[in-house]
């Protein structure tokens, strides 16, 4: 699992580099104890994923050809549940995405029967996508990605959310890395350099787009950035005296806002975690919220209160996977939970050539850890329900196999 370990740790390294660069422009504070927790967690990732488990890509499990028709049928069946939601929310067409999302959150949408049906169908969406993406038949992969694009765009107009884009994008990345692991592992440094350069290019293009979109009111945009309470105003003012300064300013701001701040937000929560009662797994495995057993939004509001009341942050905050595990299990319990996830990750790789369920579980866990510097995918209801179903499927296969 050295390949997976390197990629996960390098994702965190990119975040740390961005935080370091942003410290040139921002006042960054990370508490000592949250740093100790972070270092411990990274050591666990390094330790438990440093194992040379071997498997052969050319002998991965594939369903029988006849079963692919059933998998495609189930995939379309899951996707069809989006259509009634599209029709119910057709008034959202033409609205700004942020406006749709704000209305959806303010009215606590998503609790009706159509949403529940779509939620229950989520394993029929995510699991077939992974299986079809592994297929050697190109048509199957085209179907998988076409339907995934339809579902992702549908939910932009239904809820204004980007969740499905993120999940499908991570699945695609994890499958790509798995299928090309031999080539990438031999050229890891070269691949990472290309990956970082691509990331920098996206940040530059995003910064230029932000400036172009605000050309008529660039001074107002700069005023908003300068008003942020953690900006080093003297450094920013000096930087903005040059023509290229605005681009650098926006680049650092966007990279820090979307990537680097998650670690800062984790530290903020870590120092005040007692303000939120322990959820005992119900925050991340929150699919029970759909059945009224727990109130996930109530816990989420308490987390938001920490950021708004103590730090004046009023937007949706991502605080890395570690924050969400602490919400559920506390500081020490979260490390135990991290160990269990890492152990399950190792098991999925060990049985990669034995069970199809192991391949699917591997993609779920690899995606989870790839996104760990930003947010816990487990806190997404559709993901957590699908993960639970795949885990039960894998556990059943493992029990039957060991009884032989």
Automatic annotation (TrEMBL):
The chain crosses the membrane at residues 7-26, 32-49, 70-87, 113-132, 139-157, 163-179, 191-212, 244-270, 325-345, 351-371, 383-401. The keyword Transmembrane applies. Keywords: Membrane, Transmembrane, Transmembrane helix. It comes from the Bacteria. This is O-antigen polymerase. It comes from Arcicella rigui.
């Amino acid at each position: 699992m050295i390949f997976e370990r390197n990629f996960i740790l390098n994702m965190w390294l990119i975040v740390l580099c961005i935080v370091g660069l942003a410290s040139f422009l921002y006042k960054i504070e990370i508490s000592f104890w949250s740093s100790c927790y972070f270092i411990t967690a990274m050591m666990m990732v390094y330790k438990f994923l440093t194992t040379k488990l071997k498997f052969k890509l050319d002998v991965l499990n594939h369903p029988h050809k006849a079963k692919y028709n059933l998998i495609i049928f189930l995939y379309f069946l899951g996707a069809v549940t989006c259509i009634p939601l599209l029709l119910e929310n057709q008034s959202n067409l033409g609205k700004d995405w942020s406006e749709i999302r704000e209305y959806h959150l303010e009215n606590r949408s998503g609790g009706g029967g159509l949403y529940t049906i779509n939620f229950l169908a989520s394993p029929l969406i995510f699991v077939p996508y992974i299986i079809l993406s592994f297929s050697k038949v190109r048509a199957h992969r085209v179907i998988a990605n076409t339907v995934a694009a339809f579902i992702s765009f549908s939910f932009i107009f239904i809820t204004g959310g980007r969740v499905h884009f993120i999940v499908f994008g991570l699945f695609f990345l994890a499958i790509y890395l798995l299928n090309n692991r031999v080539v990438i592992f031999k050229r890891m440094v070269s691949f990472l350099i290309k990956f970082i350069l691509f990331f920098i290019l996206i940040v530059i293009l995003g910064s230029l787009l932000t400036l172009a979109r605000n050309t008529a009111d660039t001074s107002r945009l700069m005023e908003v950035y300068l008003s942020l309470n953690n900006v080093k105003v003297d450094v920013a003012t000096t930087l903005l005296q040059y023509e290229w300064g605005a681009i650098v300013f926006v680049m650092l701001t966007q990279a820090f806002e979307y990537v680097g701040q998650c670690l800062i937000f984790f530290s903020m929560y870590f120092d005040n975690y007692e303000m939120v009662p322990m959820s005992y797994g119900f925050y991340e495995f929150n699919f029970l919220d759909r059945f009224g057993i727990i109130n996930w939004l109530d816990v989420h509001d308490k987390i938001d209160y920490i950021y708004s009341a103590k730090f004046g942050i009023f937007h949706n905050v991502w605080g890395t996977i570690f924050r969400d595990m602490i919400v559920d299990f506390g500081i020490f319990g979260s490390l135990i939970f991290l160990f269990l996830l890492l152990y399950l990750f190792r098991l999925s790789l060990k049985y990669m050539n034995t069970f199809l369920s192991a391949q699917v579980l591997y993609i779920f866990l690899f995606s989870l850890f790839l996104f760990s510097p930003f947010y816990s995918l487990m806190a997404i209801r559709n993901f957590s329900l699908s993960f639970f179903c795949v885990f039960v499927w894998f556990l059943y296969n493992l029990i039957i196999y060991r009884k032989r």
